[in-house]
TrEMBL record:
PANTHER family noted in UniProt: MEMBRANE TRANSPORT PROTEIN XK FAMILY MEMBER, XK-RELATED PROTEIN 2
Organism in which the protein naturally occurs: Crypturellus undulatus
Underlying gene: Xkrx_0
Topology with respect to the bilayer: Multi-pass membrane protein
Protein name from the UniProt record: XK-related protein
Family: Belongs to the XK family.
Length: 68
């Protein structure tokens, strides 16, 4: 998960410097869309296992839910 995020960030940085906005937008979309879906799924899983843990919710909001 962290490696994929780092590789996407490096790729976006490269696209930003070369002013290739189309590929930058596609890269951001294909990184964020699955990540948001995974976070929503993990929120429901963690809600079922434990109740009202603010740290877990904060980690999900920061897109770091799979690390928990």
């Amino acid at each position: 998960f962290c490696g994929e995020g780092a590789a996407a960030a490096a790729l976006c940085f490269s696209y930003g410097h070369s002013d290739d906005r189309f590929w930058l937008a596609l890269t951001v979309f294909f990184v964020l869309c699955p990540s948001v879906l995974v976070q929503l799924t993990l929120i429901f899983v963690h809600r079922d296992l434990s109740r009202d843990r603010p740290l877990v919710l904060l980690m999900h909001l920061l897109q770091l839910g799979p690390l928990i």
